[in-house]
């Protein structure tokens, strides 16, 4: 199981996806480092979805590190660096990411449904 998507007849180009605090998603097709992304959102840092864990603080991606294509990242308020993530926090981030990905998919005539 993974978070890659495909459509019939074509392969989508891998992008680094960044979910903003307001729930919008930004995609990067080329090289971009975490510092460039964070600089456009003062007071925020970039966190890799792969590195998040319950009971641990959200890990900050180093500013000089390039975002990896095919990976999902979150812009998080700097205040989150001081507090451990709860199960609720991770669930909220997952729903936010799902909604952003579905919104993007609607432009490709895909169907998304969130049960709740």
Description:
The chain has a single domain (16-106), classed as Ubiquitin-like (UB roll) (Roll), CATH 3.10.20. It is built from two helices and four strands. The chain has helices at residues 34-39, 87-106; strands spanning 16-19, 25-28, 44-48, 72-77. Strands 2-1-4-3 form a four-stranded mixed sheet. It is globular and about 35 Å long.
- The CATH class label is Alpha Beta
**Average pLDDT value?**
84
* Shape label: globular
- Oligomer designation: single chain
- Give me the number of helical elements: 2
Cα-atom radius of gyration: 14 Å
Beta-strand segment tally: 4
CATH topology: Ubiquitin-like (UB roll)
| CATH architecture call | Roll
Q: Classify the helix fraction into a percent range.
A: 10-25%
In N-to-C order, the SSE pattern is EEHEEH
Structural class: alpha+beta
Which strand order do you get reading across the main beta sheet? Answer: 2-1-4-3
Percent of sequence in beta strands: 15-25%
The largest sheet, given as strand count, sense and whether it forms a barrel, is: 4 strands, mixed
Descriptive tags:
Ubiquitin-like (UB roll); alpha+beta; 4-stranded mixed beta sheet; 2 helices; 116 residues; disordered C terminus; globular; 4 strands; disordered N terminus
Describe the structure concisely for a colleague.
The chain has two helices and four strands, in the order ββαββα. The two termini are 22 Å apart.
Question: How would you summarize the topology of this molecule?
Answer:
Elements lengths: L15 E4 L5 E4 L5 H6 L4 E5 L23 E6 L9 H20 L10
Parallel strand pairs: 1-4
Antiparallel strand pairs: 1-2, 3-4
Pfam families: PADRE (PF14009)
